[in-house]
Every structure is written in C-alpha cells, then in structure tokens.
Design a protein that fits this description.
Distance between the termini: 25 Å
Structural class: alpha/beta
Largest sheet: 7 strands, parallel
CATH class of the domain at 2-191 and 222-252 and 292-311: Alpha Beta
CATH superfamily of the domain at 2-191 and 222-252 and 292-311: NAD(P)-binding Rossmann-like Domain
Helix content: 40-55%
Number of helices: 12
CATH architecture of the domain at 2-191 and 222-252 and 292-311: 3-Layer(aba) Sandwich
Number of strands: 12
Strand content: 15-25%
Strand order of the largest sheet: 3-2-1-4-5-6-10
Bound molecules: nicotinamide-adenine-dinucleotide, thymidine-5'-diphosphate
Radius of gyration: 20 Å
Shape: globular
Amino acid sequence: MKILITGGAGFIGSHVVRRFVTTYPNYQIVNLDKLTYAGNLENLLDIENKANYKFVKGDIVDADFIQNLFDTEHFDAVIHLAAESHVDRSISNPIEFVMTNVVGTVNLLNAAKTTWKGDYDNKRFYHVSTDEVYGTLGEGTEMFTEETSYDPHSPYSASKASSDHFVRAYHDTYGMDCVISNCSNNYGSFHFPEKLIPLSIHNIKQNKAIPIYGKGENIRDWLWVVDHARAIDVIFHKAKTGSTYNIGGHNEWTNIDLIRTLCKVMDRKLGRPKGESEKLITYVTDRAGHDLRYAIDATKLKEDLGWEPSLQFEEGLEKTVDWYLKNEEWLNNVTSGNYQHYYKEQYQNR
Ligand code: NAD
Ligand code: TYD
C-alpha cells in the first residue's frame, strides 16, 4: 500500500508519519509538505532515512502539481493533514486559510477521484479535522458528538468546516471512500511555539511574559499528540466508509488553570522557587470571536473501534516539558527561523 500523508512535516503530521513508517514497514509513505513556517523536517530526523519513507516538497493549492504527483505515484490512500492551523493567523490572513484548507483539500479530492476513476476498492481518503468546526459550548457539561451541527466562528474553523463538507460531498456524490475525524486540542513534542502550551514553556524558560487572552476562562480539551496518531491509525484501518469520528481526551482545562499547573511543573524542573514562573502570567486583550469551551465526546470511537487515550494529562505535560527542555536546539532553531533557511536552500529547486 502506498499512502500519501500531507502536512507530515508539521506537528501532528510528523507524529502520524513516524507511526506509519515505523509500525508498517510494508507500506510506502510519501510525505507531501509545502514547508511553510509550520513545516520542519527536523521533526522527522529519526525516520528520514527509512526505506519506506519519501519526502516531497509541494503545495496542495497547485492543482497541476498534485495531479502529476498522483499520476506518478499511484497512491492507494491519502491521510490529509496539511493545513494552515493557527486561529490567530486566520484572523489576520483569512485568504491563506481558504486557499490551503479549502482549495487545497478539493485539489486532493479531485486528483484522487481522477486517479481512482470511481473504483474505490482498497482506496481511502482520510481527512483530519478539528472539533472547532462545531463552534463553542457553554460552561455546562454538554459535549460535541458526531451529530452536533457545524457552527464555526473563526476563519480557521470556517475553512476546516468547509473542507469537511467537501470531503462528505465527494463521498455522497462520487462514492469515494472517505472518512473524517474531528479532534480536540493536541499537545506534545514538535509543537510550534505559537500555540498556548509550547509558547508558554518557551516564555517561562526565557523569563518572558506568558500572554493569557481575556480572563483565561476559556476551556479546551487536551489530548496527547501520540494518542491522536494512534486514533488516526485505528480509524484509517477500521472505520466504515463515509464515517466520522470525534477524538478527545476527556480532559478539560481552563487556560488559566492549565498555565498555573504548567508554571508549577516548570518551577520544579528549572529549580526555581515555588510561585516564581506564575509571576510571568500577563492578561492581554482577548482573541476576537474567542470560543468559550470545547469538549469532545469520544464514546463512538471507544465503542466502535476500542480506542482510548493512553496517558493522563499530568504525565503527558511532564513528558512534554521534559522534551522541550531536552531539545533546546530544536526550539532555538524554530524560534530563530534557522530551520527554514536550511531547508529552503536544500529544496529550493524542487
Ligand atoms: P501544523 O500547522 O503544525 O502543520 C501543518 C503542516 O501543513 C505544516 O507542515 C505545513 O508546512 C503544511 N502545509 C501548510 N500549507 C500547505 C500547503 N498549501 N501545501 C502543503 N503543505 C502545507 O498543524 P497541526 O497542528 O499539525 O495540524 C495538522 C492537522 O490537524 C490540520 O489539518 C489541523 O486542522 C488538524 N488538527 C489540529 C489540532 C491541533 O491541536 N493542532 C487539533 C485537531 C485537528
Ligand atoms: P491555541 O493553542 O491557539 O489553540 P486553539 O485556539 O486552536 O484552541 O489556544 C488555546 C487556548 O489558549 C485558546 O483558548 C486561546 C488561548 N491562548 C492564550 O490565552 N494565549 C496565547 O498566547 C495563545 C496562543 C492562546
């Protein structure tokens, strides 16, 4: 089986590529990534020389390039993660989100449709999406299920919702074998330090302010990225065609409680007096259209396919902090932009 994984140089994509390359040596894995600011081949140094792995630099918005790639590589399946993924960036530059997340997804669907010519036996298009398409919950105990209506608020979530609709349209209209999963907030290694957890780890280390939007009362449901990659593996192999699965950790935190817990862990790891890092917490202007609460009901995934998170959050957070403290060079390269200079030179002619 030859699988195209898009966005494999990003945070979650790199964990998915690693899992598939190492767990299934008989699969050929092609990682297609544009290497935007969020794409970093240093995330894959441990597997880049494996015989069943290949990297291709390219843009999913370029329809001709994508069709050519499908014509040459004859993929059996696609696991699509490439996206613009940061809500704050979507607020300042929505068009880029429409291009990559919507047009890019439709280009991939089209190329798969043209290549597979209506024969979807042993073919699969797996679209990786987010719980943010469901909009926001109140402070109660309600959770997002697979039946919750879409109600996106940010340009990011609107673009992801639109891409989900296109994937369903290709299943319903052309009979393409498609599956979708909608996951909650991920955390773990190789997470770009513009997102809450890695940004805060970085800032605490540097003794810089930790920006908390609004009052810090917004709630997110955090899942260890390795557990997300495990879920994608199970869904890819076992889900029925046309199905959707929510993926989440049953692990809700207000941003402020999460950051206070992180500060305690950081004080301990850095040998600082208790309470030292908390002094860096700085309340800043709230994000426009900031969703109050996300919470995933992942019962369907547990009951149908037996998946459950493997790690408690406290343990996962410790592991994540340890990883960032140990991988100083990765963090320095990312924050200085060095990783991009190196790879831009290496791949500029492709
Ligand atoms: P990321 O921003 O870390 O990585 C995205 C990757 O896509 C990067 O490597 C980037 O270079 C690549 N890319 C961007 N535009 C491209 C283009 N036009 N052509 C080819 N490659 C391109 O994102 P992530 O956090 O790893 O998220 C991966 C996927 O999972 C996204 O689809 C996102 O919506 C979804 N998701 C993320 C979370 C989360 O908490 N991060 C949760 C649920 C779902
Ligand atoms: P983020 O990591 O950007 O993920 P998402 O917006 O996709 O949920 O943000 C997680 C939460 O943390 C969200 O409620 C916004 C908040 N936040 C801050 O308070 N400060 C920050 O500097 C960032 C990046 C996010």
